[in-house]
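The instructor's notes for this session suggest beginning with a concrete chain rather than abstract definitions. Hand out the sequence below and ask the class to guess, before any prediction is shown, which regions might be ordered.
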Amino acid sequence: MQLKALIVDDEPLARDLLRSMLKKLDDVEVVGECASGDDAVEALQNRSINLLLLDVQMPEMDGFDVIEEVGVEDLPPTIFVTAFHEHAVRAFDVQAIDYLTKPITLERLERALRRVREKLLMQTAQLTQEQFKTLLNSVRPASDPPKSYAQRFLVRDGDKEILLPVSEIDWIEADAYYSRLHVTGRNYMLRETITDLNDKLDPKNFVRVHRSSIVNVERIREVYREGRTDSSLVLKSGAVLKMSKQGRQRLVELGR
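After discussion, reveal the predicted structure:
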């Protein structure tokens, strides 16, 4: 079975290394390379790909954002390739076939590809949610304590730092490896990605309406639908934010 691979990594050397390894394998063809999440989404939507080698941490749009944009159900068999160990459980939660940490060896890569081939041959390239729940439960403690969410953030304000209550935030904007917190006409930079912040905020109060923005639901004034997939919302401050199809769905589910 011929594997048609897409390599996604913002580091040229990392892409070169993966390409050189894959060239040693007769049944793998590299059909594309992407240096950003945006390019990866476009390639996945327009090319015939049955193997995705995806970096986790990339500026502006990381690997998990790519999956969110494309949708797990439309994702080809995926192997995460990253220098960070801490994302492994989350990677399996979005149905990754394997999780490789850099530096990668050819032997370890071949082992991951064997799993991809097995899944394709069995027509079960993506593990079911039930299987992943079993996997996650096997690595979790017997009982998890209730998750707590951030109540305030330490941010710089001129030449000093202040503790900013989360409840005062209108919305949050992605800015590469930083996030910009918009608060009643002012904004503060925080050295955390929007994905990391999303995990720290209470989903009852904050919704990620777009890959580049999170909104405080108490600040929403109006929601507009613009066609089948495009939507936008207007905040009480007057700010207008784009909303993705997935973001609108999250807002709908919160309102139920």
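Then share the key points. Residues 123-127 have pLDDT under 50 and may be disordered. The chain is about 30% helix and 30% strand.
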